[in-house]
Amino acid sequence: NENTLFGEKRIGASTTLSRLFKDVLRVGSGYTLERVKLDDVADGAPVSVTEFEGPDWLSRLRAFTTFDNRDNVFNPTKGRVINLSGELVGSFLGGDQEFYILRTGYTEYLTFHKKHQIEFQVRLATSDAFGKSPETPAYDRFFAGGLGTVRGYNYHRVGPQEAGEAIGGQTMAIVNLDYTFPIPYLEAFRGVLFTD
What we know:
Elements: E1 7-21, E2 25-39, H1 47-50, E3 56-68, E4 79-89, E5 99-112, E6 116-129, E7 161-162, E8 165-166, E9 171-183, E10 186-195
Antiparallel strand pairs: 1-2, 2-3, 3-4, 4-5, 5-6, 6-9, 7-8, 9-10
């Protein structure tokens, strides 16, 4: 993962168990043990970044649930996806940092006039530190900007900044709306209008 202020290296192991109910609802949990280190930290990077250079050992427990009734996973024309997840890092799990992360998302797919499609997506997330951590570490903060988040901005350039550089946030809200439509006489191509 590359940022203008720092690079990041992670190594570890993870395991996940989940169960699918009635083909649309998945519930699961997982555990990750990883070593995280920031590298190539920019000269003059703020303390909110440099204090997390590491290396840090993170012990992470995750629980999640997902409802997914799309008609096609790769090219959906109708249906919705709703997900909710929470992560606990540290505390009774051990490790060098202590914080939590909560995420939720909702995506709706609609088709009208056969080939005209709307995709509406909302993503919300928050995190906070407790115990021995002063704030959520720089490597687990939220960054937006670029394809998949807020188009029209450079990668990781939307959010809190210090001295003109993105440092990541502890809360995130992203809303995307896409309208795709067929292009006359060019059946292999589609047009798209979007706002983020």
